[in-house]
Structures are given as structure tokens and as C-alpha cells.
UniProtKB/TrEMBL annotation:
UniProt GO MF annotations: ATP binding
Ranges for domain ABC transporter: 16-246
Keyword Protein biosynthesis (UniProt): no
One Pfam family named in its UniProt record: ABC_tran
The organism of origin for this protein: Pararhizobium capsulatum DSM 1112
Presence of keyword ATP-binding: yes
Sorted UniProt keywords: ATP-binding, Nodulation, Nucleotide-binding, Transport
First and last residue of the signal peptide: none
Protein name: ABC-2 type transport system ATP-binding protein
Highest taxon listed in the record's lineage: Bacteria
Amino acid sequence: MQHVKSEEGMRLPAALDVAGVSHAYGRKQALSEVSFSVAAGRFTVLLGLNGAGKTTLFSLISHLYGMRHGSIRIFGNDIGRAPGEALRRLGIVFQARTLDLDLSVYQNLSYHAALHGIGRAAARARIETLLAQVDMSDRVHDKARGLSGGQMRRIEIARALLHRPPMLLLDEATVGLDIQSRAEILAIIRKLVVTDGIGVLWATHLIDEVGDSDHVVILDKGRVLANDRVDEVVRSAGATSIREAFAALVGLAPVSAGKGTA
Ligand SMILES: Nc1ncnc2c1ncn2[C@@H]1O[C@H](COP(=O)(O)OP(=O)(O)OP(=O)(O)O)[C@@H](O)[C@H]1O
């Protein structure tokens, strides 16, 4: 298990530790010996083209799929051996939309709070705080159906945080959103890392979502090709930008800087 040194020099378990994970669908090998970790309170990007294996990895981390090879720990709790302890510390925003469109924002959140065993009064206070954090306080009584894609995503983020998980997974959270909404969602999550100390794994195929001081894990055809700070990945690929480093590592023709996708 990987550990992260705290400022006091104590060794703390990583927020997420993925070690030697492989997964196949029949003969199709989707993940091969994938290992990396996400430090507590840090923003880590999982960058890969469509089909790289990001969703498969998220399905294993969230225990939707059983694990056959390797191990996954969330704050030291093995997802296979202690799923309750592990999942209690995890919030997840899936790629597909998951709000109940016929319920109000408040109902969507309060029903989910009840699933986590959060009492009514505590849920009300928590929902109020979270809606303020995602800048959606004024839509609390609106039906989910009336929200834009970006607004729905904000509610899904609030819902994922109801039980105060110290680790948050987001799978292509900005997919299908316009450039302004994408930037807003990314800013909300980056702020949460700083203000609430949440460890984040942000899966994307959009290279312009990678920040200069992020940690990046590059996944390609089920294999980890890089796992380091962005400047280190750029340096060791002999590149001048993460875009160039990514293209070199996955064998793409370089793409001009103005394009949004990897
Ligand atoms: N249920 C399945 N049955 C067979 N093959 C699958 C299944 N799900 C995914 N795959 C294959 O496994 C590989 C990894 O897919 P996965 O969806 O995890 O990638 P991804 O990085 O999330 O891509 P995307 O962003 O397009 O969802 C791909 O080659 C995909 O075709």
C-alpha cells in the first residue's frame, strides 16, 4: 500500500490506492496491472482517450464490479474485504446522468441523505451548505427536469458529497457541457480540494482540464503510461507541454493548442 507523508512527517494512507489491478471482459483486456495512488487533499487527473479503461476502473473502485486481480484501498480500507468502510469514504459522480427528473432538487438530495442514514434536520443543513458551495441555492425547489446539463452536474456533485466523503471520483464530469459550464464545474471541484481537503480523481479525455500543478495519471489501452506531477511527465517525455507529452506517449499526431480534446 502506498503512503503519503503528512507535513508532520507521519505516514498517512493514500486517499485512494490502486495496486496491480487488471480486468477483462471475456477476451478483451480492459485494464492491465494498473497501479497509482491519489494523495489526500490533492487533485489528480486520470487522463485517457475514449476506451482507455477509465470507466472500467471507476466501476472497480466503486465496487460495481468485483475485483479479480489486484487491490484497491480507500484510506487504507480494502474495497474487496471491507467495502462498507471503503465506500463510506467515497463520493462518486458517474458519467451518465442520474438525477430523478420528476423530483425537486431538494427531494433528490434529501432521499439520498436518507440512504446514508442522515437525519432530516442534519440533511436540511447539509443540503443548504452544499447547494451554496455549488452555487445552486436558488434552485432548491425546482424540478430537476428544468435544470441545464451543467446545473444537473452541480446537483450530482452536491449529492456525492452529502455523507462528507474525503475522496471524490468524477468520471468525465464535464462531458456534453459548454465551455463556460465546464470551467465552472472544474473550478467548483478544485475549490473543494482546497477548502475541504478532499482527494479528487478527475477522469477526463480533455487535456485542457489538466492544470500545471496537478498530478496526472495517463491511461492508454488499459495501461498506465505516466503517473507523476504534470511538469515531471512533460520533462521526462522531452516535451514542452502536457498536450505534447500526451500525444507522444499515446502515439497521437500532435494536436494544435486551440483544440479542446486530447
Ligand atoms: N461491457 C463491456 N464488454 C466488453 N468490452 C467492454 C465493456 N465495457 C468496456 N469494454 C471495453 O473495455 C475497454 C475500456 O472501456 P472503458 O469504457 O472502461 O473506457 P473509457 O476510458 O471509460 O472510455 P469512455 O470514455 O469511452 O467510456 C474498451 O476497449 C471497451 O470497448
